[in-house]
Amino acid sequence: MRVLIVGGTGVIGSSLQNSLAKNGHDVVITSRKSSTSNDSTLQVNLENISDSVRTIRNAGNFGAVVLSAGVSSIRACRVNPEATSLVNVEAQVAIARELLSINQPKIILISSNRVFDGATERTKIKSKYSPTTEYGRQKSQAETELLSLSASVKIVRFSKVISEHTALIVDWFSKLSSNEKISAFVDMAISPITVDAAVDVIEHVLVAECEPVVQFSAADEISFYDLACVVANYAKSPISNVIRQLAQDAGDNAIPHSSLESSVFPSIKPMPSLHSVHKIMEKLTKS
Fold first, then answer.
1. 212 and 224, same domain (yes or no)
2. What is d(CA 219, CA 214) in angstroms, rounded to the nearest whole number?
3. Which residues, at least 6 apart from 29, have a Cβ–Cβ distance to it below 8 Å?
């Protein structure tokens, strides 16, 4: 299958590209930066929608398209809602609409648990949107508009996807390894999954029949403080270097829950949060 990954240089996109290529798919990716070494990279800046659509249209037909690019920073979306909505909503819809008008590829939007408010554990797939952030609002709008275009559109919602390159974890590990102190929220939940698990889910949706919306998260939840304590252990730093912090003290809102009701896949099972963290910390410390 010929697959386009919009945002192919991000954590999910790059891992997905590698996996799809190993499985024999013809993969084309987009990137904001030009590539002189890879003919399968399209230079696309989603802030310029018309040019982005033109570049992608001229690249030929695709059997599937994965929309994994966007602005995921909660702060950036809050500070500049118009510019980030252009990328997170308008550009995604414009690309999907154009490609669906040419043929009928499967369109997959990578979405987030932030379309919900985190008031309950294992939020069900058909729960009403209840975003508490601008980022969540944009994702819910993108989901709604894309699903209205075609039955070929699929939404894949993840909780927090982590890897050995996750900026927060890398920063914490570096500071703790230098015996510096860090602060971590005790009232902010996280239900982390590894990027490898996320890729497995996306690949399943690419090739199999599935519901319009699927979800995947860890089997349970931990706090960011719990996560930081694991990082401290791998950094051989005393737990006393991890300072407990309330979200409100950092000007943020507490999120009591982050897990999703995970869809059922034949060979992909949600793992405990700490299992995911240990997996990526083992990779981080070996790299």
1. no
2. 15
3. 4, 5, 6, 7, 8, 9, 13, 17, 40, 41, 42
**Structure letter (DSSP) for residue 129:** P
How does DSSP assign 61-87, residue by residue? --SEEEE--S---HHHHHH-HHHHHII
Answer yes or no: is 199 within a domain: yes
The answer on 240 and 198 residing in a single domain is: no
Q: Which residues pair with 126 in a beta bridge?
A: none
Q: What's the pLDDT score for residue 37?
A: 55
Domain assignment present for 125: yes
Co-location of 116 and 176 in the same domain: no
User: What's the average model confidence in pLDDT over 199-209?
Assistant: 96
Q: Which domain holds residue 170?
A: 163-190+220-259+272-286
In a domain, 265, yes or no: no
For residue 184, give the 3-state DSSP assignment. strand
Residue 66: inside a domain, yes or no?
Answer: yes
Q: Closest Cα partner for 47 from 85, 99, 79, 76?
A: 85
Distances (CA, A) of 53 to 40, 60, 70, 91, 239: 16, 12, 15, 8, 50
Coil vs helix vs strand at 33: coil
Looking at residue 254, its pLDDT comes to: 86
Q: Are residues 56 and 123 in the same domain?
A: yes
- Find out whether 258 and 116 touch, Cβ atoms under 8 Å: no
Smallest CA-to-CA distance from 63 within 99, 14, 19 is with: 99
Mean pLDDT of the chain: 95
Structure tokens at 66: 């994965």
